[in-house]
Amino acid sequence: MRPNWAEIRLDRVANNYKAIKQLVGDSVKVMAVIKADGYGHGAREIANYLEQQTITPDWLGVVLVEEGIQLREAGAKSPILCLAGFWQEDQAMDCIKYNLVPTIYRFDMLETLSKAARANNCEWRFHLKIDTGMSRLGILPGELSDFVKLLKNYPELILDGVMTHLASADELEKAEFTNRQIKTFHDCLSQIKNHGLNPTYQHISNSAGTSSWLEARGNLVRAGGLLYGFTDTIAPNVVIKVAPALSLHTRIILLKRVPAGTSLGYCNSFFTKRESLIATLPIGYEDGLRRNYSNIGKVLIRGQVASIVGRISMDLTLIDVTDIVGVQLGDEVVLIGESGDNSISAEKMAAMTGTISYELTCGLSDRVPRIYLTEK
Question: What's the pTM value of the predicted model, to 2 decimals?
Fold first, then answer.
């Protein structure tokens, strides 16, 4: 295979989960959010490893019913919440078949889930999503009373959780908006209880909310970024020890010495200013190395820093290794991770390219094999 690979430290994921549990305390459950194939880390591998640990996950969070099915077929036993519910009747049936808890955010979803429950002669639990300001999915607060009244027509359905999603929890300068979302949620929760319902779970917080907003934790938090060791959502005054679980690697497949003034890559976007030693890497934007990292990105070789030069293409990338002492064909190159005393985090790479760390790891394609490690 091409010499590209991502290493996933499963032990770090488990330690991160334990750190989150310690942060929120015994009274708060923690959902390990492993949607989007575990943010590119591997959902099935993470679920299986976490369930083998002393502290097994209280919940697993996915978006698609199909993601939940994959986890069940891989042996996952933990409760699974489908954060985006279901889209059609057969998916509601699958929720029951595979023991998945759907999120409901439209009135008509009650009838669909009820029909599936009746067909299986059972009661079924769901979580209700309320739109407190994110404006994506959810029942609006003004619709809540009508929703609860409608729910009473479906005795086979059990409202087991109420949730919302914070839009700006990682931007402390927008505290007023976040506080308004939190207040709206608690007002809605009080309204639900006034109708005689008492859902088991109340959850608001994503990773940013978990670290920054104590009043938003409820009794269940949804940890995504924190689970994988991303630290860009952690509030400055919060102490939690998490470590990045993913590193990205490749190897030099060609070394070429070129004179000053040589054009490198597509569109003549870079010209050497001196005689230079240029290395070719067998990785490009189809693998997930974003094209806008061209001419600004950094990599690590032999513990030293080298620059990406020229346009990143679909399958190949060029780097300037003129100043890398001892560089050789086949040398390992670290794009995300550590080498010697230097490191490049997904957060740093994301900041250079105007995106977030989640997008980088989610964007690693299937052409990059994942290698799972439990200790190193």
Answer: 0.94
